[in-house]
Design goal:
Layout lengths: L11 E3 L3 E4 L8 E2 L1 E4 L3 E3 L3 E6 L9 E7 L4 E6 L3 E10 L2 E10 L5 E13 L14 E6 L2 E6 L3 E7 L5 E7 L4 E7 L7 E6 L1 H5 L6 E4 L1 E12 L5 E8 L8 H17 L3 E3 L3 H17 E2 L10 E2 L9 E2 H11 L6 H5 L2 H5 L10 E2 L25 H12 L2 H22 L9 E3 H4 L11 E2 L2 E7 L1 H21 L5 H18 E2 L4 E2 L2 E2 L24 H12 L33 H13 L3 H15 L28 H9 L2 E4 L2 E4 L10 E7 L2 E8 L2 E6 L3 E6 L4 E6 L2 E6 L4 E4 L7 E5 L2
Parallel strand pairs: 39-41
Antiparallel strand pairs: 1-2, 2-4, 3-6, 4-5, 5-11, 6-11, 7-8, 8-9, 9-10, 10-20, 11-19, 12-13, 12-18, 13-14, 14-20, 15-19, 16-17, 21-34, 22-23, 24-25, 26-28, 27-28, 28-31, 29-30, 32-33, 33-38, 34-35, 35-36, 36-37, 37-40, 38-39
Helix pairs in contact: 4-7, 7-10, 8-10, 10-11, 13-14
Length: about 750
């Protein structure tokens, strides 16, 4: 699918440290919003105006656009001329090429005016010293240079020097500010913009220093009839751009082509699934991050390059899941390794790794490199799934001892009652920032008292189980305490967290039995464990998860129950749907023999959310409408839903299990899936499935049938129902053994 192009609603481009956005409100040639890490924002970076001989600005109207992952091309026009804009973003560089074509038979005397502005962390990163707020800028005819503390340097160069211009400091009131997000107990988010009149209406200086800067330059040109005029504007997060437009284009094209070559092909008549699948891969490609610093030795997936560049613990745990299906193990295996490098000496794994020190100032005066807190250890799932897909024992070895230290830290420092339940002390540590569970006990985002949160302890329980599995695979003897704490957690969950009258698991005040009586998704999450007995399991399923009065919304699973008075289907953790939570339910229910419930949730979730989604942070749990930031890392979990659950491929040691969920989606085909040494393709046909292994073995399975295919002692062993039909290609070299089960 190397010719695949992302749908035209993608007006964003991404490099490594760069994210670029052009919105309808800024319909002009040039580069509009450009974000650099979590520190600098250029809004705009380079607005290009064309002025007539009388000094009046020509009104250019966008006539057409061709937007794809390699290059964005737009054509603007007026009565006098046509302007073609081409923008490429790759690595830490961006390139803009403008081509002006006259529409008249006579020469045109025009002036190009290029202006922009740089804002220092408008989202309000805490500073301790006045000099940290300042950026230093210089202007010369062929370049604009911006420097922040010798930590970030930006360079903007012009292929032809400007005639005149300059740079200037801005006041806070010079920056337009518009609130676009607000919810209970969470940060406000704003959009910022430096208006043209501010940027171009002041005398310029050659140097300036302030928190916010603006620049402007002009160049007079003569546009001759029948001739084109070309100007390149090059940008880099460096001292100088290193590539021309053509070079950057070629490098970006190769990077995208090479990436798609490792992406399994998905084919379906359900176009919304196809678009969602490939959009998800684009977001993974776009959010990949490399930071040249020893603490970030391994590349990782940025949460969101418009807002969250730093690396987050539970986000990365979910980012690793879709990367499993990339036909190169490096991205999945590297995703979580930086957290081991940054593990505290006492064993804690911090939940956020900061690129720059100012990002970490909100965290209780740590070294500003990591948070003084952890997050739900979702890597308990992802590590084992990565191993199942690629079979690399060295990968597990890398994590084994650090996870033992982390598990012991949870016991020593977070389990007040020594009953197998760990607490969280901050809303951000929980991951569910503004949940109504915290309304009675939060004080300036700290929890007083701390809470033993159900979902946090579910993931710790899974972590301890994963440690035992890792030990078995690696041939190690795990500490006896791990099994003891697993049993203790299960016992305490049912004696302390479970309200037997309600048949629901509630958070409790740490080291007490005082319940926080709010029905959040966490209270149903124990379904993915072996905690509930048969009666409790039945109630959790039917009275809560599958009840339309509780959690079975049109786009399940909501973050809190519909029955809660605080429920709002669009609001953050107060009723919205979060993709990683829905994924966890579907994955866990299927693994715990609740495939029917998993099918119901997945079917409704995909039907609603894929209509209008672009891998958003969260969405409306009734309409499926995207609400949170687009291009969010864990929004790419659609990939796993499609391959694992719709097309039925579950990697196992030395092979796979075929187990598709039953949904409304019948037109499904995925090609070129590499599992271990196998290359697998799956296609749904009328009433049955066709599964092909290495182009040599074809398996016809009933629509509701499951089977396993593993390599044992040099032969392919296929185990499934008697209805299974297996055909081998002539000359098949690998022996095949078929084992039928009732």
């Amino acid at each position: 699918m190397t010719d695949f192009k992302i749908a035209s609603d993608v007006v964003e481009q991404f490099g490594n440290m760069i994210a670029l956005r052009k919105t309808e409100e800024q319909a002009f040639p040039g580069i509009a919003q450009l974000f650099v890490a979590s520190v600098l924002q250029c809004q705009p970076l380079a607005e290009v105006e064309v002025l007539a001989s009388d000094g009046k600005r020509l009104e250019l109207v966008e006539e057409k656009a061709d937007l794809n992952p390699v290059c964005h091309k737009r054509v603007f026009g007026s009565e006098l001329l046509s302007v073609q804009e081409e923008i490429v973003v790759h690595d830490n560089e961006a390139a803009l090429r403008l081509t002006l074509v006259p529409k008249t038979c006579s020469d045109l005397g025009l002036t190009l005016r290029i202006s922009g502005g740089v804002l220092m962390s408008p989202q309000g990163v805490p500073y301790h010293w006045e000099e940290e707020k300042l950026i230093h800028g210089t202007y010369s005819p062929d370049r604009v240079q911006v420097d922040w503390r010798d930590k970030i340097r930006l360079a903007l160069t012009f292929s032809q020097p400007m005639d005149e211009g300059g740079i200037m400091p801005l006041r806070e009131e010079d920056v337009a500010k518009k609130l676009y997000f607000r919810t209970f107990n969470a940060k406000k988010r704003y959009r910022y913009w430096i208006e043209r009149e501010v940027r171009t209406g002041q005398a310029g200086l050659s140097t300036a220093e302030a928190r916010n800067l603006a620049y402007c330059g002009t160049k007079a040109i003569t546009l001759k009839a029948g001739q084109e005029y070309t100007l390149e504007v090059l940008f880099a997060v460096a001292d100088n751009p290193s590539r021309s437009f053509a070079q950057l284009y070629a490098d970006r094209d190769k990077a995208w082509t090479d990436f798609l070559a490792q992406v399994p092909e998905f084919i379906s008549d359900h176009q919304e699934l196809v678009e969602t699948y490939y959009k998800s891969w684009f977001v993974l490609f776009a959010n990949r991050m490399a930071f040249d610093e020893p603490r970030f030795k391994y590349p990782f997936t940025s949460v969101n390059k418009f807002h969250y560049y730093n690396q987050f613990f539970w986000d990365s745990g979910f980012h690793a899941i879709p990367w499993i299906w990339f036909n190169d193990k490096e991205p999945a295996q590297s995703e979580l390794k930086n957290f081991v490098l940054n593990q505290w000496r006492n064993g804690m794994i911090p939940y956020e790794l900061f690129l720059y020190d100012v990002n970490g100032r909100e965290w209780m005066e740590t070294d500003a490199k990591t948070t003084a807190a952890t997050q739900p250890p979702t890597l308990a799932i992802s590590l084992m799934e990565i191993f199942a897909k690629f079979g690399d024992k060295e990968f597990l070895e890398f994590f084994y001892e650090p996870l033992l230290r982390y598990e012991d830290w949870l016991w020593r420092y977070r389990d007040l009652g020594r009953r197998g339940l760990s607490y969280v002390f901050h809303i951000w540590e929980s991951g569910t920032d503004n949940s109504p569970k915290f309304d009675p006990v939060h004080k300036n985002r700290l929890l007083d008292p701390a809470l033993e949160v159900v979902d946090f302890n579910v993931f710790i329980y899974l972590l301890r189980q994963a440690i035992l599995k890792m030990a078995d695979i690696l041939g190690k003897e795990p500490p006896a305490r791990i099994k003891e704490r697993i049993a203790l957690t299960k016992q305490s969950a049912n004696e302390v967290l479970l309200d037997k009258e309600d048949g629901f698991y509630y958070d409790v005040w740490a080291d007490t039995d005082k319940h926080v009586k709010v029905k959040a998704f966490s209270g149903v999450l124990p379904l993915i464990t072996d905690w509930p007995d048969e009666e409790t399991r039945e109630r959790l399923l039917n009275d809560y998860l599958l009840s339309e009065k509780e959690f079975n919304t049109e786009c399940p699973v909501p973050s809190v129950s519909v029955s809660e008075p605080t429920f709002a289907s669009h609001d953050f953790w107060r009723g919205a749907n979060w993709p990683q939570i829905t994924w966890t339910f579907v994955y866990g229910l299927k693994r715990n023999s609740h495939a029917e419930a998993a099918s119901i949730i997945l079917d409704k979730y995909l039907a609603q959310s894929t209509k209008r989604h672009f891998c958003n942070e969260y969405c409306d749990s009734v309409t499926g409408q995207d609400v949170g930031l687009p291009f969010q890392g864990w929004g790419t979990l659609y990939i796993d839903h499609i391959i694992r659950h719709l097309c039925g491929l579950e990697p196992t040691t030395n092979g796979f299990q075929f187990h598709p969920l039953s949904t409304r989606y019948k037109s499904l085909e995925v090609r070129n899936i590499r599992i271990g040494d196998m290359q697998v393709s799956v296609k749904a046909e009328q009433g049955h499935w066709l599964v092909n292994i290495d182009g040599q073995v074809a398996i016809k399975a009933p629509s509701q049938g499951t089977f396993t295919a593993v390599v044992e002692d040099g032969k392919l062993v296929i185990t499934g129902p008697a209805e299974l039909q297996v055909e081998q290609a002539p000359g098949q070299s690998t022996p095949v053994e078929i084992r039928n089960v009732n």
